[in-house]
Specification:
heterotrimer; A mainly alpha; B mainly alpha; C mainly alpha; B: mainly alpha; C: mainly alpha; two-stranded antiparallel sheet; 24 helices; about 5% strand; globular; transport (chain B); NADH_UbQ_OxRdtase_chain4L/K (chain B)
Chain lengths: ~250, ~100, ~625
């Protein structure tokens, strides 16, 4: 057919292979967050393709809805589930990987061949005439005349999906939410009064204010909970004994 | 350049997405591969709209996007719910239907 | 001529049986009287019919009555009709007369039995069925009665069915009868196929149109039926075992009436046998074989009832031989049948009387010298004994000698062979019957003091006396002026007989008497003048051993029929379990196996299911690809 100009060709030949490679990489990286980022890049590439093909509205919607909303939603859920979760790349189901590779090659080959067969000899029309009054106006014209019924149904679907998400994410309280009174009584009925005043933040200490010095509890013992886990793991915690208060010298004025 | 080249890219992306569903174990990554498949379809629709000279393909791609968005919402809510009760996001762990 | 009272002959005893069976224990007090009255009523109707027939001219003596149209299917028309002609009225009088006497006898004989009422019900049922047999006007009607008497025989032989051996004897009788019944069914079928009718009148008219082959086939099948019912060789094994039934049953059914049904059948079918000489010869040969067979067995039996049963078998052999000699012999066969009914029933009742007096002991080796204690029994039994061995002027002399004479006159090798067999049988009969009388009534007593032999009550000896009178007088009565022969001639002598005369009657009689004397003499020497051991001696010849075991007929039946039948059944059972059940289980196993195989696809992993979905999609795309190529 060859009815596109050279800039578009350059655009395609740069971004096209990049998109495919990103997709392959998305399959093969270990961390889920990396997959999400790669997918976001693919979607942006697709948005560029849409705009290059005279679908301006769709291109912007792709960026706003897909890359902006949907991928960010993915990243939020990943954070909820566990950012560090990475899976080993060895396959647990026997023989699945070779079958998958064969299937990929077969499927891809079939599709490519079919597409080639279907498009050879097709007349290329282009969207110049269709977009005569502007892409958005033309789309609106179609949406509200020919596809108005599908439009209404899809909007109902959106509402249903929102409701569904709310229902699924709803957390049934199995026990009654403790009121402030309950919390207060629990504080003072605990195993020792040491934690009644609540835990101090890191570095709060009578004579020293540092991140790597454990804070003192009301009964004088150092609280290891006030040090960051990272510091503890690195072994950078300083012993707090030299800084412990001796008996309070109340007689001194 | 032949506009049909976009169709080839679409086919390749679709295949890669399909394989990703089968190969990856993390439920969220599987879901992302499903999204990839849907996006590949969208690209095909838009290309066909251009080839045929009317905007019907774009309208369909539009609807596909809406539906995909709803699907992502509900699907991720389900994954979160499963994660909450099973403490695991691997699809292999949900194998109670095993014989 | 039609008559409306024929049906009462059958209806009265049938009604009696129905009442006695349906009323149950309520009729226990009067059941036996009622049954006897029904039988006597039937006898009265029979006598009145006989007198009526006597009053009619010869050509119009037969009385018919059509009850209802039974089967009407296309060209097959059978009416439920009755025919009382000269032949059947003889049987009617015999059945009802002797039957009523035995009813009376049973009142006393079965007086200690709680099930006496049921016994009388069965006896009445037997009388009704036997009358239907002899009064039916077609082979099919005869068959109904035939089956009925088979059933009655089974019920009565196994009357005391608490004892397993008795029940088995009843089964044996029924099964042997059944084999014969097959013959009768086939004969009826062949008759319908070739002649288009099964009524006696119809067959008689059409018989000459059928081929000799089909007539011979019918004849042979009828012979098979007769051998089953009349205990002829080779179906005779059941008669000895049938003595398990009460003695009145043995007297009525297995001496006087049911076992003679075969002779009736052959005589009734004279129009077939006269046109099929091969079948007729077969009848004569079977008769000759059986009369020797029964006589030989009778020599070795120590059980008085079994000895009398063997004697019955032998005497019926005489009747069958007579019936197989064509028109010349039918009348004498019937004469012997009637006289035999008197003396054999009388002897059986006598045996019952002896058993009653000896506490149901049946072994003759434990009898001895009973004539002093049971004089009436001895007298009546003795008269029957003289009749059976053929001493003039008693009944058997006339009937048996006539048969021997007709046998010799049949001519050729056949005549001489059959006649010699009959003479030999007469000698052996004399021997073993004398043996029975000596062992029972003569000699020294071989019983201990626990037995108290005594004469039987009036209700038992009165029938015996009447039957003894018959044994004495009936022979002369039937022969005087050829009365019976002339009476039966319109029925059985349709074709004139070609009688030669090999030996004159006088010669035959003298020969017979000489042989009888030899037999009697030998028995007297062996048993009266010598000591009779109480236990049967073990060191005897192989012939005696074989005769004690019924000439090995039971062993033969077992080896040839029973064991192959059992292995066939076992084989079928194994085939059923292994093959058929195996196939069914195999289907189940296949289902389970294939299910197990399919289970392997249910891995539980979502990803493998996703793989399957992808595979399906690939298949779809491939199909489209192939189509668009």
């Amino acid at each position: 057919m060859g009815h596109t100009q050279t800039p578009e060709a350059v655009l395609f030949w740069v971004l096209g292979p990049l998109a495919v490679l990103s997709a392959l990489a998305m399959l093969m990286v270990k961390k889920a967050v990396h997959s999400a980022i790669l997918l976001a890049w693919i979607m942006i590439t697709l948005a560029i393709f849409y705009i290059a093909q005279d679908a301006a509205f769709l291109g912007i919607v792709q960026v706003v809805v897909y890359t902006g909303a949907v991928m960010m939603l993915f990243l939020f859920i990943l954070m909820l589930v566990g950012v560090e979760s990475s899976e080993s790349l060895t396959e647990t189901i026997r023989g699945l990987r070779p079958i998958a590779v064969v299937a990929a090659l077969g499927f891809g080959g079939l599709l490519v061949s079919l597409i080639g067969h279907a498009t050879i000899g097709r007349a290329y029309v282009g969207l110049v005439d269709a977009n005569a009054g502007g892409n958005v106006q033309a789309l609106a014209g179609l949406l509200f005349s020919k596809y108005v019924w599908a439009f209404e149904v899809v909007s109902a679907l959106l509402i249903t999906a929102a409701l569904g998400a709310m229902v699924l994410a709803h957390n049934h309280r199995l026990i009654q939410r403790p009121t402030q009174r309950d919390l207060a009584t629990a504080r003072f009925r605990g195993t020792s009064l040491a934690s009644a005043a609540g835990l101090p933040g890191p570095g709060v200490y009578a004579l020293h204010n540092a991140v790597d010095v454990p804070a003192l509890l009301p009964d004088g013992t150092p609280s290891q909970a006030s040090i960051s886990a990272t510091l503890k793991a690195r072994g950078d915690v300083i012993d707090s004994r030299p800084f412990q208060l001796s008996a309070i010298e109340n007689e001194e004025e | 350049m032949n506009p049909a080249n976009y169709l080839y890219v679409s086919a390749l992306l679709f295949t890669i997405g399909a394989i990703g569903v089968v190969v990856r174990r993390n439920a969220i990554v599987v879901f992302m591969c499903v999204e990839l498949m849907l996006n590949a379809c969208n690209l095909a629709f838009v290309t066909f709209a251009r080839i045929n000279g009317n905007l019907d393909g774009q309208v369909v791609a539009f609807f596909t996007m809406v539906v995909a968005a709803c699907e992502v919402v509900v699907g991720l809510a389900i994954i979160v719910t499963i994660y909450r009760s099973r403490r695991s996001a691997s699809v292999d762990d949900a194998s109670l239907l095993k014989r | 001529m039609t008559s409306n009272s024929l049906v009462y002959l059958i209806a009265l005893p049938l009604f009696g049986a129905a009442v006695l069976l349906l009323s149950g224990r309520r009729s226990d007090r009067w059941g036996h009287i009622f049954g006897t009255l029904m039988s006597a009523g039937s006898f009265a109707v029979g006598v009145s019919l006989f007198l009526k027939m006597l009053g009619n001219p010869t050509g119009e003596r037969a009385l018919t009555q059509k009850l209802f149209s039974w089967i009407s299917v296309g060209s097959f028309q059978v009416d439920a009709g009755l025919l009382a002609d000269q032949l059947s009225i003889c049987f009617v009088l015999l059945i009802t007369g002797v039957g009523t006497l035995i009813h009376v006898y049973s009142i006393a004989y079965m007086s200690h039995d709680l099930d006496r009422r049921r016994f009388f019900a069965y006896l009445n049922f037997f009388i009704a069925a036997m009358l239907l047999l002899v009064l039916g006007d077609s082979y099919l009607n005869l068959y109904v009665g035939w089956e009925g008497v088979g059933l009655a025989s089974y019920l009565l032989i196994g009357f005391w069915n608490q004892k397993p051996t008795y029940a088995t004897a009843a089964k044996k009788a029924f099964v042997a009868n059944r084999v014969g019944d097959m013959g009768l069914s086939l004969a009826i079928m062949i008759a319908f196929a070739t002649l288009g009718t099964v009524s006696f009148q119809g067959v008689k008219e059409h018989a000459s149109q059928a081929s000799t082959g089909s007539l011979t086939a019918i004849g042979i099948m009828l012979l098979v039926a007769a051998t089953g019912k009349s205990a002829q060789f080779p179906l005779q094994a059941w008669l000895g075992d049938a003595m398990a039934g009460p003695t009145p049953v043995s007297a009525l059914i297995h001496a006087a009436t049911m076992v003679t049904a075969g002779v009736y059948l052959i005589t009734r079918s004279n129009f077939i046998f006269d046109l099929a000489p091969t079948a007729q010869l077969a009848v004569a040969i079977i008769g000759a074989i059986t009369l020797l067979f029964g006589a030989i067995i009778g020599m070795a039996k120590d059980d008085i009832k079994k000895a009398l049963a063997a004697s019955t078998m032998s005497q019926i052999g005489y009747m069958v031989l007579g019936a197989g000699l064509g028109p010349a012999g039918y009348a004498f066969a019937i004469m012997h049948l009637l006289t035999h009914g008197f003396f054999k029933a009388g002897m059986f009742l006598g045996a019952g009387s002896v058993m009653h007096g000896m506490n149901d002991e049946v072994n003759m080796r434990r009898y001895g010298g009973l004539r002093k204690f049971m004089p009436i029994t001895f007298a009546t039994f003795g008269l029957g004994y003289l009749a059976i061995i053929g001493v003039p002027p008693f009944a058997g002399f006339y009937s048996k000698d006539k048969i021997i004479e007709v046998a010799f006159n049949a001519g050729g090798v056949k005549g001489i062979a059959l006649g010699t067999a009959a003479l030999l049988g007469a000698m052996i009969t004399a021997f073993y019957m004398t043996r029975v009388v000596i062992l029972t009534f003569a000699g020294s007593k071989r019983w201990d003091d626990k037995a108290h032999p005594h004469e039987s009550p009036f209700l038992m000896w009165a029938p015996m006396v009447l039957l003894a009178l018959g044994s004495v007088a009936s022979g002369f009565f039937f022969t005087h002026g050829n009365s019976l022969r002339n009476w039966l001639a319109p029925v059985v002598e349709a074709t004139p007989s070609h009688e030669g005369e090999l030996l004159s009657p006088a010669v035959v009689s003298i020969l017979a008497l000489v042989l009888v004397a030899l037999g009697v003499g030998y028995a007297i020497i062996k048993y009266l003048l010598n000591e009779v051991p109480q236990v049967a001696p073990a060191d005897v010849t192989v012939f005696t051993k074989a005769a004690r075991k019924d000439l090995l007929q039971d062993n033969f039946n077992e080896a040839v029929f029973m064991r192959p039948g059992q292995s066939l059944t076992r084989g079928l059972q194994v085939a059923d379990t292994k093959l058929i059940d195996g196939a069914v289980h195999g289907i189940a196993r296949f289902a389970i196996g294939s299910g197990n195989l399919l289970r392997k696809t249910q891995t539980g992993f979502v990803r493998s299911y996703a793989m399957w979905i992808l595979a399906g999609a690939i298949a779809l795309v491939a199909t489209i690809w192939v189509v668009t190529l």
